[in-house]
Design a protein that fits this description.
heterodimer; A: alpha/beta; 9-stranded mixed β-sheet; 6-stranded mixed β-sheet; 9 helices; 22 strands; 28% strand; B: mainly alpha; 2 domains; two-stranded antiparallel sheet; 12 helices; 4% strand
């Protein structure tokens, strides 16, 4: 039996330890989607009624076991489907990931403060006999092999027929899916199903399944997530990267909330594992606080970044992700494609908090936003002037305490535990009249 | 009908609107700036005074503030220009688009929809209130019922009831859990719209029967636009599309036009 990766499917990218050259400054680490187990990633490119949806898969088991069932609003023909390089989505993930930056305080006596940059199948599924499909009230609207996938688009009268057909064809449909499938069928949705064609897969030479992209015209700007909530496996993480010409994308039936950003946190969080823990716990804490909200992690014009967690995507990559309006680059700089705006949304959903599918709208909002967390290294030199003494005895401890409080507030961690991890700061021995 | 002896519902409305705007800015992080607030209120007052001067009418400014707040609560934009245009069109529509001595469109509804259709740089954000405020909005709306009476609020009530019935029927037909229509009904923008825009007695039918029928038609059209044409902010478009039918209801039911206070001039001359 194949395990179903359902609904808005499905890609996880592992945490990349890469240090990107910091051409726009002091970037030190990022919190990409690899931090979240069993998360899915979808790139949703939208322009007027054109939807280009790329669904990745981080499937790591035996590819024979891979299967995908996604409700789609139209019958998607072979020419409307293509496969995308995993590296392109990884790049988009890296570019939009929340980031950690660091600053170094300088000797207050030098009267300058500046920022230093960090270095930054053999068992191809048998086509089901059309007669059996008809008997069950299932219509095979389209059927084709593309790259390593065997794809079918199904429509049906009744969910029970469709579910029987899927079960007979080796798809393991979770219990409780029937009413949801039925609801989609009544809303005139089709089911896009994909399995791996092992023979073709071995020919591709890829070690990982490639993301599938579908392209269609449809007024509905939505992502179906309800099938994903049928399995009561707790909450799931979904990352949506929306690409538009004009500005931010937001949900219309859930609140879109900015995650806390631009706050100082203690320097020990710079450790890769600590930063991962920080981001995971901060996100969990915000989810608990805000309930059924969709979180904004990044919103930026694709032509630049500051600081960059990765270079902006090239025009070629943007076009690969469906941004057909982006013009090819005229120079050889390799990046800097303008005219595309990316919104990265992060949803942690289950049936209780997200009963409805996600509905979106694209807005004219081009205000930039990024998840950015700051480490400030205090200056620890010898005080040679009153300003430095004041800095060592007051400013630096105060900054450190503020950073600890920020961390506790964002993550829900115990402030006393955080304080234990803080370095002991140097004090200036000589007192001055204004400190007494 | 006169409210001169008790609290003017427009003051109440202004208080609720102001609290919501402050809550929106401070807690829900609405992208509304001080400059935008100044631009919207300033443009609204200037436009109102200009038209009052041209039509030789007294400067009645209270509902101008209601209109400004409606625009600020429901419409967002980059910069001030489109918000100012929205509120300018809202006020101008009161004076220029009139049938039988009454303005045809709810002013802020007209201004907001016009700007939504004209530019991509302004947008309404139906999800911005989340689902935490619905109880407050329901209570605030009920307060308005207590203040102006059931008859005035019939449009709002019949709209909400029809809308709710349609959503629950849809869920039943699809076999969806009731948590879905419940979630859809707890939308803050929907409640704000029904209590503080659809309750405007000047742009809804005067007769109670007319109000009930009008509220039901707006709900029917809104559901169709939202779930058939997949239009976000469908209720705003539904109200605009049906507003021209109000005068037909009034002629058919032959009921006197509503006035906020005892007229100092002829009723048809006080927008």
């Amino acid at each position: 039996m194949k395990k179903i990766i359902s609904a808005a499917a499905l890609l996880t990218v592992s945490l990349l330890p890469t240090q990107v050259s910091a051409f726009c400054g002091f970037y030190v680490a990022k919190a990409d989607t690899g931090l979240f187990n069993e998360s899915s990633q979808v790139v949703y490119t939208r322009d007027a009624d054109r939807s280009i949806v790329t669904m990745g898969s981080d499937f790591k088991g035996d590819v024979k076991e891979f299967a995908m069932v996604v409700p789609v609003p139209v019958v998607v023909q072979k020419e409307q489907v293509k496969l995308v390089n995993n590296s392109t989505i990884k790049h988009l993930d890296a570019y939009t990931a929340p980031r950690l930056v660091e600053y170094f305080d300088d000797d207050p006596c030098a009267h300058i403060m500046y920022e230093k940059a960090m270095p930054a199948p053999a068992m191809a599924p048998k086509p089901a006999p059309a007669a059996r499909a008809r008997e069950l009230g299932v219509k095979i609207e389209a059927q084709y092999t593309l790259g390593e996938y065997d794809i079918m688009v199904l429509s049906g009268q009744e969910s029970s027929g469709l579910i029987t057909w899927l079960t007979e064809n080796g798809y393991k449909i979770p219990q409780g899916a029937e009413p949801v499938v039925n609801s989609y069928l009544k809303q005139n949705m089709k089911f896009f199903i994909a399995k791996v064609n092992l023979k073709e897969y071995s020919k591709t030479g890829f070690t990982q399944l490639r993301p599938i992209q579908v392209n269609y015209r449809e007024k509905r700007f939505m992502l179906p997530i309800r099938l994903g909530t049928v399995n009561a496996n707790g909450k799931q993480d979904l990352f949506i990267y929306a690409l538009t010409r004009n500005g931010r994308v937001e949900t219309t039936n859930y609140r879109t909330v900015k995650l806390p950003s631009d706050l100082e946190i203690p320097a020990y969080v710079k450790d890769k594992q600590q930063f991962a823990n920080f981001y995971r716990d901060m996100f969990r804490n915000q989810v608990e606080k805000e309930g059924g909200a969709v979180f904004l992690e990044y919103a930026w014009d694709m032509s630049w970044c500051d600081p960059c967690a990765a270079d902006p995507l090239s025009s070629k990559e943007l076009q690969e992700l469906g941004a057909f309006w982006v013009k090819p680059e005229t120079n050889n700089m390799g990046s800097g494609a303008a005219d595309a705006y990316v919104t990265r949304l992060h949803v942690r959903y289950d049936r209780e908090t997200f009963p409805e599918d996600l509905m979106f709208q694209s807005t004219g909002n081009t205000e930039n936003y990024q998840g950015r967390y700051i480490i400030r290294h205090p200056w620890q030199g010898e005080a040679s002037c009153p300003a430095a003494r004041d800095y060592l005895n007051r400013t630096a401890p105060k900054q450190q305490e503020e950073a600890a409080k920020n961390l506790a507030k964002m993550t829900g961690w115990d402030i006393n535990e955080i304080r234990k991890q803080l370095p002991k700061l140097k004090k200036s021995a000589s007192t001055t009249p204004w400190q007494e | 009908m006169s409210y001169s002896s008790r609290l003017d519902p427009r003051h109440y409305q202004l208080t609720v609107q102001t609290s919501l705007l402050l809550w929106g800015i401070w807690v829900l992080e609405f992208p509304v700036t001080g400059l935008q607030i100044a631009a919207v209120i300033g443009t609204a007052l200037l436009t109102q005074m200009l038209f009052c001067h041209l039509f030789k009418l007294p400067y009645l400014l209270l509902s101008t503030l209601n209109t400004s707040l409606s625009v600020l609560l429901l419409l967002h934009a980059q910069g001030e220009l489109w918000l100012a245009i929205a509120v300018g069109l809202s006020i101008a529509s009161k004076f220029l688009l009139r049938v039988d001595g009454k303005h045809v469109f709810n002013p802020s509804n007209f201004g907001i929809v016009a700007v939504l259709l004209l530019t991509h740089d302004a947008w309404a954000a139906p999800g911005q209130w989340g689902h935490g405020l619905w109880l407050f909005l329901l209570l605030a709306g009920s307060g308005l019922v207590g203040l102006v009476g059931w008859r005035t609020m019939l449009t709002s009530v019949s709209f909400l009831l029809t809308y709710a019935v349609l959503l629950f029927l849809k869920a039943t037909w699809l076999g969806d859990p009731w948590s879905i229509p419940q979630h859809q009904l707890q939308n803050g923008s929907l409640l704000l719209f029904s209590f503080f825009m659809l309750s405007d007695p000047k742009t809804t039918p005067a007769h109670p029967v007319g109000r009930i029928l009008f509220g039901m038609s707006v709900a029917l059209l809104a559901v169709w636009l939202q779930f058939r044409l997949f239009l976000p902010n469908a209720f705003l478009y539904a109200l605009l599309a049906l507003s021209p039918s109000v005068f037909l209801f009034n002629r058919w039911l032959n009921y006197p036009a509503f006035e906020w206070s005892k007229p100092t001039t002829k009723p048809e001359e006080t927008p």
